[in-house]
């Protein structure tokens, strides 16, 4: 039996059986990989005083400080209450400060503290180590193709109107 036969068998099984096995579910496989990434990241960044949920926020702020809570919600793809809790924890941990925007005093922007900036190098090194571990059995071409395909999948899901989230605007 060759790969084409396997694909055809899977297509026939999908059409006939309502049962979905975990290993056949792309969503399950991606979710499992994400949970394993999060667990590995937690083990490496917790000694730095970080929680895994803070890492995407830090990535956005290391790229460009002075973002609003609403901007961070859109970038990180989380709801306002989740972001509010994450930012409160980061503020208590001395990673960020909320400041009035110098151009529009009605807006509050999020800025990194010195501690938040100093964690960039060790936290990024931890994430790169995990990425390398996850990709070690793939060729560079396969790694590139995986990133490309995951980007397409994310775009497909984010553009579909049934998947839209209700996010309030926060100035």
Order of helices and strands: HHHHHEEHHH
Major β-sheet strand ordering: 1-2
- Might you state the CATH topology name? Arc Repressor Mutant, subunit A
Q: How would you sum up the major sheet?
A: 2 strands, antiparallel
Tally the helices: what do you get? 8
User: Which structural class do the helices and strands define?
Assistant: mainly alpha
* CATH homologous superfamily classification: Winged helix-like DNA-binding domain superfamily/Winged helix DNA-binding domain
- The total number of structural domains is 1
Proper CATH architecture: Orthogonal Bundle
Instruction: State the helical fraction.
Output: 55-70%
Instruction: Report the mean per-residue pLDDT as an integer.
Output: 87
- Which range does the strand content fall in? 5-15%
What's the N-to-C terminus distance? 58 Å
Number of strands: 2
> Can you identify the CATH class?
Mainly Alpha
Pfam families: MarR_2
Protein name: Transcriptional regulator, MarR family
GO molecular function: DNA binding; DNA-binding transcription factor activity
Domain HTH marR-type: 23-155
Question: What is the secondary structure topology, with strand pairs?
Answer:
Layout: H1 3-16, H2 26-45, H3 55-63, H4 69-76, H5 80-92, E1 96-100, E2 108-112, H6 114-118, H7 120-135, H8 140-159
Antiparallel strand pairs: 1-2
Describe the structure concisely for a colleague.
The chain has 171 residues and is mainly α. The protein has a single domain (27-157), classed as Arc Repressor Mutant, subunit A, CATH 1.10.10.10. Helix content is 61%, strand content 6%.
